[in-house]
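User: Quick sanity check before I run a bigger batch. Here is a single chain. Can you write out its predicted 3D structure?
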Amino acid sequence: MLYDVLDVCRYVIYYSEKKDYGISNLKLQKILYFVQAYFMLENKDHAPCFYEKIEAWDFGPVVPEAYKVYARFGGCDLHVAESDIDIDEDDHRNFHGLRYYDIIDNFDKELINRVIDRFADYTATDLVSLTLCQRPWKDAYNPYQINEITTNAIRRYFSAAK
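Assistant: Done. Predicted structure follows.
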C-alpha cells in the first residue's frame, strides 16, 4: 500500500518522540529516503512506501512536500502536534487515535520503526554525509537544478548493496 508522505512523516515523528530519539526536518528527510529504500527491498512486490518524489538537493535527498511543511521548525526537533493528540478523561495522551497511526499497516509500522531505530544514533549531519556518498543522490544531483532521485535508482542501488 502506498501512503501519503505526510502521514508517514507524522508517524516517524510520533515514533521518534515516543523513543526519545529527537528528529529535525533535515534528519526526517534522510529517514524518508531510507524508509523508501527499505520498503522496496523488503516488500514482496518491491513497492515504495509513499508516492511523492524524492529530489536531490544540496544536503541530500528531500521530499519537497514534507520539507515545506516542517521547514518552519528550522533545525529544532519536531514533535507530534498537540491537535493530533487525544486527551482522555484521566488526562492521558492517546496517540492511538491518530489518523496516521491507524492508516499505516502494522507490518509497515514495524518496518518504519526498524529504519528509525537503525539510524537513531546518527545526527542529521551524519545522514547528510552518508546520503551524499550514495549513487542515487550523486547521479541525480546537479547544482542549481531540481532533479528527481527515482525509485528505480534507489531500488537498484540498495539491491546491489544488500
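The CA atoms of residues 25 and 68 lie 9 Å apart.

User: Great, the batch can go ahead then.
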